[in-house]
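TA notes. Do not distribute before section.
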Amino acid sequence: MAEAVAMCRAATADGIRTVVATPHYKPGSFTWNPDEQRTAITALQSEIDVAGLLLTILPGAEIAFCHELPELLKSGPHLTINRGCYFLLEFRPDAVPANVEIFLSSMIDAGYLPIIAHPERNFWFTRRHDILTSLVRRGALLQITAASLLGEFGADVRSFSQQLLSNNLVQIIASDAHNPGDRPALLAAAVRAAAEQIGADRAAALATSNPLAVINGIRLASPEKAGYLNTEAPPRSTSWFRRLLGFSS
């Protein structure tokens, strides 16, 4: 609890007023139930209220991709962002399942809107930005991590974050906070960095009005001219082993 309150204190000092708690959820290895989530959020909110911090904690989850996603979300509204229509989706850092575009498009058609977590740190997406472009145009959101834009995950990740911003593919900048030490809840510096690239108004929206729409379940309009224009994705090869596992590379 002390660690969580310290994170909240840093967040408020940085100008953050609302935090969506998104614990990892991976069917088969790491799960939790809505009662556990509700108890934890209530306890933390009580502590930060006593501490006089002007911060609201909302429920959510960061769900590892699995083919049972539609059934999970239908039976578990606590896995969505603030129990709305958006859900935060995480892929493996080095591979994405085959036919992911078809799979997520069907979920979008059913009213479940994916927010793809930290695509800038996914090696597969760096080579298949055409898939990201298609998904954003269909209604998915891309959420990059503040630290990525500041170079804390390396120059390549920072460069790809900047490319995504320049091509109007990013809808949210998030803290992706894990602890008060090397992964604190900080956003202001990343918004300033984004403003140098895309302008102050657009950068601010990535940490204010767009996340506000998400927590209120309001569907954001697909951005105009989103995507890598006049470019083609580099060719890809698929090994027999990855095809066997159902992954493309």
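Switch to the second chain here.
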Amino acid sequence: MRHVVRDIALSGAYIETDVHPYVGTHLMLTLQRGEDQDNPVAFVTIPCRIVRHGADGMGVKFMLTNREERWGIRQFVEPASRGGGESGEAAVEFALMVPLLFLLIVYALNFGSFIYCWITVADVALSAADYICTDASTAGAPAGPTAASLGALVQNATQYLPNQNSSNPSLAVCQNNNGTTTPFFSTLPCGVVGPPLDPEPISTAGGATHYTSVVVDVNYTFTPFLTGATFLQFGLPSLPSSIRRRVVVRWP
């Protein structure tokens, strides 16, 4: 005999029926979803006990004795309840999670942008130092380094950095030639701390003349993706505003 299940939960259900067995009667109740009787997933049989009568039906309490029965009733209860109160709860939970989600996105963008800029500045400093090490005797090498060519190298390699322009990042190249520190290919005073004197003398006999050491100093002013101290009233971590990479090499 088929009856309509009006309300159902993990603990029991209310069944519309004109039959009213005594309260306390034990029944084997088969719950079926839809009309697909051949689908074993569409129905489940569980023991229950009548606990009350109503004007148009009766209330039963499920008597779940093992894991299979609990799992089976859960398959019926959860899909039925998703369209009701739980949908409202899900909406509230989603509304509470959205600000945190956007905050995580901002964190990821700011930190990701900083790491990308740091790696780019480090790479360009190494590339400029490698370029300085070339000379006419280097096989397959480009033309010898100059202040202009080094500046063009840095500008081309950092063109995709945020806030990049002709002065950001800045490049300073200084040389130490036997204790005299000057800008690369210039006799003017060096604007940054120059490289140390190369500890190895050119003469194998220990002469006073040493190799020339060169320092490449790249300084970039970093601008976060989202600036400010807070986002949606959440505090944002402060990131360094300056990224500086310094490489010292020996110049032939």
